[in-house]
Amino acid sequence: MNALFPIVTSTMSATMEFLPVLVIGFLFGVALEVAGFGNSKVLASQFYFHDMRVFKVMFTSIITAATGVALLSGIGLLDVDALYVPDTFIVPLMVGGFILGLGFMLSAYCPGTSIVGAASGRLDGVVTFIGVIIGSVIFGMLQPSVQGFYMSTAKGVLTFPKLLGLPFSLLAFIVVCGALLLFLGADRLEGVFARKLGMPEGQKMKGAALKTMAGVAGLSLFAMVITLTQGAAKVTGTQVNIAAITPIELGQMLVEDPRSLIIADLRQGTAPAAENIPSAVRFSDIKDNLALMYKGKTLVVFSQDGNDRLPSELTQFAGRTARLQGGYEAWKTMIMGQPEPAYQAFLNASEEGRKSEIAALHAYFTGAKMEAQAETRKPVMIMAPPKKRSGGCS
Amino acid sequence: MKQLWNPYLAGVFLGLVLLLSYLLVGHGFGASGAASVLGAVALKVTAPAYTTGHGSSFAHYFAGGQNALSTWLIYMAIGIFAGGLVSSVVNGRNKVEVTHGEHTTNTRRLILALIGGIVMGIGARIGRGCTSSQALSGGALLSVGSWIFMLAVFAGAYALAYFVRREWL
């Protein structure tokens, strides 16, 4: 079941997105500029509480985008799992964020707004962006010596819906409500500090802004309601949510204890034997007997790309059930094949340290000799660090 | 000079652009990534030895002989610049100047801006992104790491705010 959006997915050619990205960047630049973020004075005022524009704009944009995502995925137009989410590295992100915050206060720009500042003629913006370039080179030089820290507390793609086991739309609605409360607080707090400091006060949620925000909140509520009512229908009917395992995990389970596994192929029709995972059976052949199967086993299902809706029969199996993350494509690129550009989409940065395991699994399943390992390892090393899809800095 | 947008309306506009980005290309914004790429390219030109070999953290930008500049990050940065330029001109806010508070000098402001930029460059690399990519784009998708990052950014800035207050107030 393929959703209409996103149009350009991570498996497509990278150059396909250049034109849309240029347009998005342009609109992003306009949005930052009309928000006042081309001016470091406006940005700095956030941190003296008299004009909390940065906070208001940031959190309003977050709740607006989150509401849009909840709504469009709720009506089936957007596949939220296909969106790029940066990997979570708890301590490095905390430390990196704190350091970035220090720099933000010193320069009164963030990297994106320094570009807008520069475009608005602000020399401090130009200098800040040059600083960002220098800083990233400095860290690049130091990186090999702090690699252990840099890769520590890796959690892969970790979202609150995944962490808490709650629907995206519900959590998005909670964030919207929380943000609205904080906005009311910010609107009041500004007055207090503006008087105390003798500085101008920020604009409030009034008039058109109030109506628009009410609209966002309403849509967010609507998105939650439709998702939850669909969800209720799914409990009795179709939707199944089960844990995902990575190709590496599946490979290791297959090596260590193949008899504890039932691997079921969800793809329609017959896949050629070469295009299959060892010992896989067709799901259609076993689906009627799932309730009777030995529950001490682990049932792993896979589709072609890991994006298909899971069949409701899965709930009848009493043992542990898992789905293969990224589906057969991930298995093929990560364990079996010569890596393609799409490869990086399947390898979390948290798995970077597992290159040798992948190489060993590759050798095991392809029957390649050990000397072939060097060859299979090479593409992994080229592909793993860049994480080209990463939004920012890696 | 036109008045700035109401922050909530600007935020909704920004959020819609972010949503458009998700819909079209499957990911959000990026800004500091372009700086990393430019830094790597500058290093390759000036000190190529650092950009090759096994231990180099810059080698991946040039892996397989690829053009490091051929990445969406650069296109987005060009777009941001163009958007900022057009909007600032149209709204009469484009002015060549050094923006600073009343009690400081241009030189002081520029030095602090440079130091701040360098610090941000380091922070953005450790944090795998900046306010655009990590905080906004990951935050709206409710990524745990992005929220940790975002709160840490505010914590870092507020921690320092008191000490540099003479620059702004």
Q: Could you explain how this protein is built, in words?
A:
By secondary structure, chain A is α/β, with parallel strands linked by helices. Chain A contains 16 helices and seven strands. By secondary structure, chain B is mainly α. Helices cover 60% and strands 0% of the residues of chain B. Chain B has six helices and no strands. The mean pLDDT of chain B is 94. Chains A and B meet through helix 1, helix 2, helix 3, strand 1 and helix 4 of A and helix 1, helix 2, helix 3, helix 4 and helix 5 of B.
Helix content of chain B: 55-70%
Using the alpha-carbon principal axes, give the shape of chain B: globular
Number of helices of chain B: 6
Q: What number is the mean pLDDT of chain A?
A: 83
> Helix count of chain A, per DSSP?
16
Taking pLDDT < 50 over at least 5 consecutive residues as the criterion, the unreliable ranges of chain B are none
Task: Provide the succession of SSEs of chain A.
Answer: HHHEHHHHEHHHEHEEHEEHHHH
Low-confidence stretches of chain A: 233-239, 340-345, 369-394
Task: Kindly report how far apart the N and C termini of chain B lie.
Answer: 23 Å
Shape of chain A: globular
Sheet having the most strands of chain A:
5 strands, parallel
Helices, strands, pairings?
The complex is a heterodimer of chains A (394) and B (169).
Chain A: H1 18-34, H2 40-45, H3 53-74, E1 88-89, H4 90-107, H5 111-119, H6 123-142, H7 147-150, E2 154-156, H8 160-164, H9 168-197, H10 208-236, E3 243-245, H11 247-256, E4 261-265, E5 281-282, H12 283-286, E6 298-302, E7 320-324, H13 327-336, H14 343-346, H15 355-366, H16 372-383
Helix pairs in contact in A: 1-5, 3-9, 3-10, 5-6, 9-10, 11-15, 15-16
Chain B: H1 7-25, H2 32-46, H3 72-90, H4 106-126, H5 131-139, H6 144-161
Helix pairs in contact in B: 2-3, 5-6
Brief write-up:
The complex is a heterodimer of chains A (394) and B (169). With 394 residues, chain A is of the alpha/beta class. Chain A is built from 16 helices and seven strands.
